[in-house]
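Colleagues,

For the teaching module next term, I've prepared a clean inverse folding example: a structure given as tokens, and then the sequence designed for it. I'd like students to try predicting residues themselves before seeing the answer, so please don't circulate the second half yet.
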């Protein structure tokens, strides 16, 4: 049974306007940690597929448990919703809406969050998180804006050849850190681009990134390409980048 304390949390429904997104705006879900105080400042986890992270990943409940029971430093979560019909176009680096999405994230979303909430403004305190193609989007946002983002959580990242090619052309990535996991049963997963061996493409991306100096916290585990698998590893992903207060 879920501890009732974990359900007493603040999740704000918000919206940010955009010049770069076709709809002109984007819905957000913002988790504010227990004891949130505007006088203080907090690390922020920015999640692609925001609705899924909150509903299927149970990220707000997990965050509350980590803060209350494990003494993890309180942090904010920003879930960025996505129109599933436009997801590939926004998240994939060769998608027609990708450039606008990256500009939205760096030039509009980040200033909005840091202007409205008590969010820290150092790259080490901004964490990009995503599942599958959301992990891909998070990596490419960081590659495009290394001065803003250098910490990434990629849950079964969809690192197709186009992503590997872009990463291979990157310069020094010694400031980048990635938490990467993949399920061993993802070796023949059907996507809208064909069937891929996600174990293989994650191993390949790990090697590429490490060759550029990036640090990876990499794991292969029993699991499929589903939220039931990813949810189990969200606590470890968060604890990789956000530590106990004492």
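(Answer key — instructors only)
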């Amino acid at each position: 049974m879920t501890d009732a304390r974990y359900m007493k949390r603040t999740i704000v429904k918000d919206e940010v306007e955009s010049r770069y997104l076709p709809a002109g705006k984007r819905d957000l879900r913002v988790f504010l940690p227990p004891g949130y105080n505007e006088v203080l400042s907090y690390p922020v986890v920015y999640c692609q597929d925001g609705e899924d992270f909150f509903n299927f990943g149970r990220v707000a409940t997990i965050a509350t448990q980590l803060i209350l029971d494990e003494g993890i430093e309180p942090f904010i979560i920003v879930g960025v919703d996505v129109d599933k019909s436009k997801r590939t176009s926004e998240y994939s680096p060769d998608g027609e809406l990708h450039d606008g999405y990256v500009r939205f994230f760096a030039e509009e979303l980040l200033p909005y969050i840091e202007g409205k909430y008590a969010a820290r403004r150092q790259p080490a305190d901004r964490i990009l998180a995503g599942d599958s193609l959301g992990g891909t989007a998070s990596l490419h946002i960081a590659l495009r804006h290394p001065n803003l983002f250098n910490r990434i959580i990629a849950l079964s990242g969809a690192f197709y050849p186009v992503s590997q090619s872009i990463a291979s052309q990157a310069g020094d990535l010694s400031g980048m850190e990635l938490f990467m996991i993949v399920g061993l049963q993802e070796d023949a997963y059907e996507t809208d681009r064909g069937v891929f061996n996600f174990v293989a493409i994650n191993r390949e991306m790990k090697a590429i990134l490490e060759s550029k100096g990036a640090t990876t916290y990499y794991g292969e585990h029993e699991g499929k390409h589903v939220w039931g698998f990813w949810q189990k590893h969200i606590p470890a992903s968060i604890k990789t980048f956000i530590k106990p207060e004492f």
